[in-house]
Specification:
The protein is an alpha+beta fold. It has helices spanning 3-56, 65-79, 100-104, 113-121, 167-217, 232-267, 286-291, 303-306, 310-322, 361-397, 404-434, 451-465, 484-500, 543-546, 558-564, 570-580; strands spanning 82-87, 92-95, 124-130, 135-145, 156-165, 271-276, 281-284, 326-330, 340-347, 352-359, 442-445, 468-472, 480-483, 507-516, 528-536, 584-590, 594-602. The structure holds adenosine-5'-diphosphate.
Length: 603
Amino acid sequence: MNIRTQLTFRYIGIVLLVLLAMYFYLATMLKDSMSSHITSELEVQATLTREFLIEELPTKDNFTYDLIDPLVDKLGKANNARVTFIDLAGVVWGDTERDGQALREMDNHLTRPEVQDAIKKGSGIRDRYSNTTQTEFRYFALPIHSNADSEISGTLIGICRVALPMAAVNTAIDKLRQMALIASVAGLILVIVFSVFSTGAITKPIGKLTQVTQSLAAGNINSRVPVDSSNELGQLSHNFNLMADRIQEQIDTISEEHRRSETILKNMGEGVLLVNGASEITYANPTAISMLELPDDYIGKALIEINRIPELQALLKKAEQTETIAFAEIQLGNLREPEAEVTVVPVSAGQEYVIVIHDVTKERQLERIRADFVANVSHELRTPLTTIRGYAETLLGENSVRTKTGEQFIVKILNHSARLTSLVSDLLELSRLELGEVELKRSPCDLNTFHAPILDVFEPLLEESGLVLKWEVPEKFPRVNVDRQLFMQIFVNLIDNAIKYTPDGGAITVSAKIRSGEGTEGAEIGSEEILLRVEDTGIGIPMESQSRVFERFYRVDEGRAREMGGTGLGLAIAKHIVLSHNGRIWLESTLGQGSVFYIALPL
Ligand code: ADP
């Protein structure tokens, strides 16, 4: 049912209710007032009739029809009412409606309630249907006492009853009913006409609004409502149009952003894949499609069905479980040089995951070429260097250098070629570590067994520099599973630096402890690890250099470092050895106060 019909029905309901209420009110009013009018009329007429009859009537004993009925008829005619006289035995002696034989045959009226009331209470009133006249009457009866002149003065001799027809009341109410009916029909017609016009003003704009909302919902974003009034409906339409404008703007922005992201995703070198919580692919960019060789109908397929790379599944699972970003280098089976960095990022609380695949094959190749080149060059430089050193030593030993200057030159040649030799061997070692050519010979090592060999190497240097080495590794410290020789190299590099960059009178402390990872410094939460510290009271490393000292050839103070005889590769080598042991290395340092180098190894 539309609004117009609803409103029309409501109006009709209201009008009918009002008319009905008015009808009942008026009917009651009319009935009451007419009825009381009739009653008072009856009262007046009955009283007058009684007075008249008292005067005119003979005494009780000589009632005759001939005497009484004409009197009653006369009174009735005068009053335009029905008048009846009944004696105390209930015999009707006179009645306006009956004469002669008919009068004599009338029922005994003693049992009539109004007659009884008149005798007992002094007056009686009743509405009743009269069989005699076949109409409804209101009867009013009063007792009649004989007049004062008679010898039985004051004695009750009969009852006079006056009746007026009630037809007038009923006729009036019938008329009212007719009027009410006519008013209702007229009201209905008026209401229908009125509602057709008045509801049109409301329903028309609403109809238009409805049409436009349907059109909008169907995707016609340009649909707008015509605003042709300034009332509430006009405002509603205006506001609706504003809302539609805003939505359109937002859709435009989103579409633009979507287009932009699509272009970026389509043209980027990385493979991007979206999977839902059930690991089903919901999106893949062209790079991902070609990297993973996805079939045409990949959307909605489980990743594992399409591409069986266990590492990728494991990575996805890890991201699902930890709800954090998971990263790994994975060999993608169908890449020529199968190497890729894969990142899994959980989005919208585990409902979706973004998988980014970065093909690092070329980078790895280049790194390998560079490391190969460095390794080859270093290797090639070793033989000539040995020869140079050999000849220089021979020259010096054979005393064939006559002059002092010549001797100094040869010593310089020897020093520089020694530096070059250590540089070349450091470079070679670093390249081999980078190329993964160094095979780890792990064995359980007691850290305290490193103390003596370290002292052997550094004791003269420590004494010369006025430094002390404090060894604070607990006596019963768990053994660590490392390559002994390579680990010695770490100690040598760190302690050598500490000695070089700590002024006289300082101290170098080596200590170790076991700690459970708290997620700091990349440690996995809950796993136990060994934390090794090499601390000095030296010059410290400025903040901006702290992240860079592990790069090859990086030196904080180029001149000073060279003077100290360093190659700039010590920390880079230490870092690679630690990494090959699945450990982490980092430092904390305060300028002028000292540095602490930390090495964490999984236990
Ligand atoms: P180098 O052979 O020059 O010592 P490293 O790789 O061992 O090369 O160190 C890189 C640079 O880090 C050094 O040149 C020095 O500036 C800084 N460095 C290393 N260890 C320390 C330390 N204990 N105290 C201060 N500076 C240091």
